[in-house]
Amino acid sequence: MTRTHTSPAVAFAAASAGIAIYSCMDALMKGLSIASGAYSAVLWRSVAGVLLTGTVFVARRQRWPERKALRLHVLRGLAAGLSVLLFFWGLVRVPMAQGVALTFLSPLIALFLAAALLGERIRRAAILGSVVAAVGVLVIALGQAQAGASVDVVLGALAIVVASVLYAYSLILLRQQAQLADPLEVTLFTSLVIGVLLALGAPWLATWPATDQLVPIVGSAILGSISALLLAWSYGRAEAQVLAPVEYTAFVWAALLGYLVFDERVSPFTVAGALLIVGGCLVAVRGAAPVSQSEAGA
């Protein structure tokens, strides 16, 4: 079989598109979380996601995952489920731009988890890019500190920090998943595990969606599924340390969508931080070697 190669830049571009689409889903989910609570919003989005991707999975007559892959699906679903629940609970309490800025801890944590758990060599370019991006996060934090924060905002921020740690671990698991399963399988089983996990507490913590929430729920599921497919494809073709910094681009989208949808203002600190973050992403992706599709399990 002829070995084909995917450039890290192509994988990075696909992951960037996935993050942009995911940011649009974040805006829908924040609105749903405000209306009916984060638990219900995440639960019904997961159910809709399972129905959408499950239909395609069955139509393609794909095989049930093997035991090793299934174990990864369950493990990542648990990590991602807890992460997304905490994130949207916190996002109700803080502006989108601030919330996403806090999630930038995830790529930095994932960078070193990749070395510890996957045996990846940390390149100097990846470290430098992460440092530059981290400075951007500090600039944003300085601007938010000057604005002051209530107890509710602090609790929301802490929830997002914990979510960031869990999300960093899920990024590493995604890299491992992508070696054993195609993007559709990864997307379906992640949503399935999250849905089953949240369904256990649904009788006490969830509410039925109102009629006017059905379109946003389905829309968020579609956007989330497309984003997950793009990210799974990308993580199957490039190292986690190459793709982790792409998470920083979510800030630009969060600032824009927060302003357009929720009338959340962006300070000069936020703009300066965003420029540093994007610059860090560009530095981190330079000089990476291509990963073959056969090595990626494609």
UniProtKB/TrEMBL annotation:
<protein>
    <submittedName>
        <fullName>DMT family transporter</fullName>
    </submittedName>
</protein>
<feature type="transmembrane region" description="Helical">
    <location>
        <begin position="41"/>
        <end position="60"/>
    </location>
</feature>
<feature type="transmembrane region" description="Helical">
    <location>
        <begin position="214"/>
        <end position="235"/>
    </location>
</feature>
<feature type="domain" description="EamA">
    <location>
        <begin position="17"/>
        <end position="141"/>
    </location>
</feature>
<feature type="transmembrane region" description="Helical">
    <location>
        <begin position="153"/>
        <end position="174"/>
    </location>
</feature>
<feature type="transmembrane region" description="Helical">
    <location>
        <begin position="125"/>
        <end position="147"/>
    </location>
</feature>
<feature type="transmembrane region" description="Helical">
    <location>
        <begin position="9"/>
        <end position="29"/>
    </location>
</feature>
<feature type="transmembrane region" description="Helical">
    <location>
        <begin position="268"/>
        <end position="285"/>
    </location>
</feature>
<keyword id="KW-1133">Transmembrane helix</keyword>
<feature type="transmembrane region" description="Helical">
    <location>
        <begin position="186"/>
        <end position="208"/>
    </location>
</feature>
<feature type="transmembrane region" description="Helical">
    <location>
        <begin position="98"/>
        <end position="118"/>
    </location>
</feature>
<dbReference type="InterPro" id="IPR037185">
    <property type="entry name" value="EmrE-like"/>
</dbReference>
<feature type="transmembrane region" description="Helical">
    <location>
        <begin position="72"/>
        <end position="92"/>
    </location>
</feature>
<feature type="transmembrane region" description="Helical">
    <location>
        <begin position="242"/>
        <end position="262"/>
    </location>
</feature>
<feature type="domain" description="EamA">
    <location>
        <begin position="155"/>
        <end position="285"/>
    </location>
</feature>
<comment type="similarity">
    <text>Belongs to the drug/metabolite transporter (DMT) superfamily. 10 TMS drug/metabolite exporter (DME) (TC 2.A.7.3) family.</text>
</comment>
<keyword id="KW-0472">Membrane</keyword>
<keyword id="KW-0812">Transmembrane</keyword>
<dbReference type="Pfam" id="PF00892">
    <property type="entry name" value="EamA"/>
</dbReference>
<dbReference type="InterPro" id="IPR000620">
    <property type="entry name" value="EamA_dom"/>
</dbReference>
